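Checklist before submission:
- one chain only
- standard amino acids only
- sequence pasted in full

Submission:
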Amino acid sequence: AAAAAAAAPQDGGEPQASTNNGSPMLSRVRQVLDPVPRLRAKVVHGFGRGSKMLGFPTANMEVRWDLEQTPEALAPHEREILEFARSCQTGIYYAWAQVVDGKDRGVYKAAMSIGWNPTFTDVKAKTIEPWILHDFAEDFYDCELRIVVCGYVRPEIKFDKFDDLIVAIKEDGAFCGSALEAAPAAALAGDGFFAAPAAG
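Returned file contents:
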């Protein structure tokens, strides 16, 4: 399935961030994904860290790990995101995102984190958490989020310093925003996977 065709799994080990004058020195790339994964899932409550602890509100996409052993019990889109989560390389990706059944149905840039969140050691299951680079007027828990994953940026890294993590997330957002303005990702903002905007 196209949803499972991201970068090859490379989950072994935890790269450490090298620092220079307290600022993370991270190598970022624009690794285009082909075919492009198109994922949809309900937005569920996560740990609340994206907004409360870090200052970057993320949308926690539901991955049905509870039914991993019985995938036939899942709807097709639930199987697709589960398979993507199981097989993709952890790290940061750039993507387009839309809250399909929310009040704001715009298609916006996103910096998406996939992985075990190694900085926070109580995470047991791999998570998919897009940081949508847009200020929403209200929460959209339980709404359907659609994501077109355009490319891969960097691996998951453990940060020893909280401030370094904050800097890295800000830089990830800026890098992903720029990547989405370039070909071929820019054209995918109009992908047919996204729902038509609500009539004004």
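Reviewer check: Confidence is low (pLDDT under 50) at residues 1-24.
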